[in-house]
Amino acid sequence: MPAPIDFYFDYSSPYGYFAAMKIDALAAKHGRSVNWKPILLGAVFKVTGAQPLPTLPLKGAYALRDILRSARFYGVEYKQPAKFPIATQAPARAFYWANERDPALAKKLAQALYQAYFVEGRDISSPDVTADVAATLGLKRDEVISALNDPAVKDRLKNEVDAAIKLGVFGSPYIVIEGEAFWGIDRFDQIERWLAHGPF
To answer: Measured at the alpha carbon of residue 38, what is the angle toward residues 10 and 100, in degrees to the nearest 5?
Structure first.
């Protein structure tokens, strides 16, 4: 069995959302599994000096148009949230907590949280909203709230983010295949070729 693909993403990233709806099917087509790894772009930006797209002159306006066009291109439902970007500690912690219990369910949770934010416009930076979304998948709301405040869960997220930065992860989505990194949903064609035919 080939090595799993590592998929790094931030819940406030529209391009990460698009990738989250496509990555498992692409990997499965080539006999691969995917390790999902939410990160915090805020922490990454402190290292890179980057800024959220909406804050950048010229580029911000282009990015919004590109996001909407990309959603149509990839066939993914998308509505620009009123609050954007957001802090994503709550959904990221919820993922890692759920992943310890049921990795398949954690992926469903990740997709549900993304859709809650980028389709329904719900503010998943709120622990209450994150817990509400988790409850729709059968997770116990009070357990999720408790997990979001658990020092061990907080440390797990911090350690994952630190490890990602050490690896060189600087954006979302960021995909690593046996040491080869690809940044962006627009690299999926290259990923497909790499998986099908090997390095080029």
So the answer is: 155
Indicate the pairing of strand 174-177 with strand 180-183. Answer: antiparallel
Closest CA to 51 of 20, 85, 26, 28: 85
* Of 133, 35, 129, 143, nearest in space to 97 by CA: 143
**The two structure tokens encoding residue 12:** 């406030």
**Burial label, 88 (beta-carbon count in 10 A; 0-12, 13-18, 19+):** buried
Helix, coil or strand: residue 7:
strand
Residue 34 vs residues 25, 64, 72, 103, 126: alpha-carbon distances, Å: 10, 28, 25, 10, 27
**pTM (whole model) above 0.90:** yes
| Rounded CA separation 35/198 (Å) | 20
pLDDT of 10-59, one tens digit each? Answer: 999 999 999 999 999 999 999 999 999 999 999 999 999 999 888 899 99
